[in-house]
Amino acid sequence: MDRFSGLDPDSARAARLRELAAALSIDAPAGRLDAVEQALHDDVEVWQATAAGRRLGKRELLAGMRALGKALRGYRYTDIERVFHADGYVQTHVLRGTARDGTEVEAPAALWVDVRDGSVIAVREYLDSAAVAPLFRAPTPRPGVARADGA
């Protein structure tokens, strides 16, 4: 569900904001990272709760999206709600997919996205770290398969 606050939903600005939101929430899970890269300002700054407060740039964000695509099979965003405003948008959603160990992941998340000159210049993301913990577990050894360390 999309809402608009102080912004004409039929304006060119609103249309551009919807395009940018689609790049982050539709193109990224589909693996179309070229569309995401085009949506991001070269100087984008990303803060993620799961990155221990470390700021990420464009290259690190795209690398993280690639890694997420490998670690979470069928990943997608559902239950998306957005409020667009003159300087960007706020979005809540649920990240869903299947971790390598078969665990179904359902992680509530929120994004605050700032837009400047038609590109995403800042993203602040909160993701329920407990809900994504299965993505960071070491794979369980399968019976009869030797470990790399010889144990």
**Briefly, what CATH class?**
Alpha Beta
Mean pLDDT: 87
**What is the first-to-last residue Cα distance?**
52 Å
Number of strands: 7
Structural class: alpha/beta
Structure, described:
The model has no long low-confidence stretch (mean pLDDT 87). Strand 2 (40-48) and strand 3 form a beta hairpin. It is globular and about 60 Å long. It is α/β, with parallel strands linked by helices and 151 residues long. The N and C termini lie far apart (52 Å). The longest helix is centred in the first third of the chain and has 16 residues, at 12-27. It has helices spanning 12-27, 33-39, 58-71; strands spanning 2-4, 40-48, 55-56, 72-85, 88-99, 104-116, 119-127. The chain is 25% helix and 41% strand. The chain has a single domain, classed as Roll (Nuclear Transport Factor 2, Chain: A), CATH 3.10.450. A seven-stranded mixed β-sheet has the order 1-4-5-6-7-2-3. The relative contact order is 0.18. Helix 1 (12-27) runs antiparallel to helix 2 (33-39).
Q: Keyphrases for this structure?
A:
Nuclear Transport Factor 2, Chain: A; 3 helices; about 150 residues; globular
Give the helix/strand layout.
Layout: E1 2-4, H1 12-27, H2 33-39, E2 40-48, E3 55-56, H3 58-71, E4 72-85, E5 88-99, E6 104-116, E7 119-127
Parallel strand pairs: 1-4, 2-7
Antiparallel strand pairs: 2-3, 4-5, 5-6, 6-7
Helix pairs in contact: 1-2
